[in-house]
From TrEMBL:
PROSITE patterns with a match to the protein in the record: RESPONSE_REGULATORY
Domain Response regulatory: 18-136
Keyword Phosphoprotein in record: yes
Name of the protein in question: CheY-like chemotaxis protein
Keywords: Phosphoprotein
Origin: domain of life: Bacteria
SUPFAM superfamilies linked: CheY-like
GO biological process terms held by the UniProt record: phosphorelay signal transduction system
Gene3D superfamilies hit by this protein: 3.40.50.2300
Length: 268
């Protein structure tokens, strides 16, 4: 075990203070627990049954969840999706998926389920620490859509796989391009949420609310008065409560009218 300085411990403290480990193998779970306590964890709970994790997370409100990819009563990808779509106050909690199988398909499955990091067995304390440090010091934008909920997949990174199908970082080259990318993504999610509203109304409303907040903040930052007014109008309707697809159509349409044709053509 390597030594951690006080400054590093302070950075990772909010993430590791309370941790839930989901693993059917007691020895593997104990190893993770011991390593995390060495990183400063104060409260570590271990669970092997996926069905009980939601209640545990609700009670504990962890800063980090580590889950095996699979087990007798565990589907790590399904668990990640359940957490992301839940009403838990910790639904955005960082999740690290742990598995001995590091293939393109398993990494993609983890990424698309809303996992933050991927850790291949066997691993060292340094491997685990790097994942925790990434979570604490390199936060990723949150994506609240209907089909996907979780950290921005464009910045998903796994050093455990270097073969075909590994997704490379897709970072904008400049601040101006970053603004355009954020706006385009929010517009695409907004259009998609309306298109998928009937299949999942609750998540569609949650997605629309997140995009309204994102677009208003972006409009204020860039001085786009038209977008700021349209996004504020959408927020006002949402704040009134019980929005429907019909009542949302006008305010959402006003926002989408300000989108580029290219961004809407990629909505889905």
């Amino acid at each position: 075990m390597f030594a951690l300085d006080a400054k590093t411990m302070q950075k990772i403290a909010p993430v590791v203070r309370r941790v839930v480990i989901v693993d059917h193998n007691p020895a593997a779970a104990r190893l993770l627990s011991d390593l995390l306590k060495g990183f400063g964890s104060r409260d570590v709970a271990i669970e092997s049954d996926e069905a009980r994790v939601i209640d545990l997370a609700r009670e504990m409100e962890p800063g980090l969840i580590l889950t095996e990819r699979s087990g007798p009563r565990l589907d790590g990808e399904a668990l990640a999706r359940r957490i992301r779509r839940s009403s838990l106050s910790c639904r955005r909690v960082p999740i690290i998926m742990v598995t001995a199988e590091a293939t393109a398909s398993s990494i993609k499955g983890a990424r698309d389920s809303g996992v933050h990091e991927f850790l291949r067995k066997p691993f060292t304390s340094g491997d685990l620490f790097r994942r925790v440090e990434n979570l604490a010091t390199k936060p990723r934008d949150w994506v609240e859509a209907v089909g996907y909920i979780g950290p921005d997949r464009r910045r998903f990174n796994s050093d455990d796989y270097a073969g075909p199908g590994k997704r490379k970082a897709d970072k904008p080259a400049s601040a101006a391009e970053a603004v355009v990318a954020v706006k385009d993504q929010a517009m695409r999610i907004l259009a998609s949420a309306m298109a998928q509203f009937d299949s999942d109304p609750m998540q569609a409303v949650r997605a629309i609310k997140q995009q309204a907040e994102t677009l208003k903040a972006l409009a204020i930052k860039t001085g786009d008065a038209s977008l700021a007014i349209a996004a504020a109008g959408l927020e006002t309707l949402l704040a009134a409560g019980a929005p429907t697809k019909a009542t949302l159509a006008g305010p959402v349409g006003a926002v989408l009218a300000l989108a580029s044709p290219e961004s809407l053509s990629r909505a889905g």
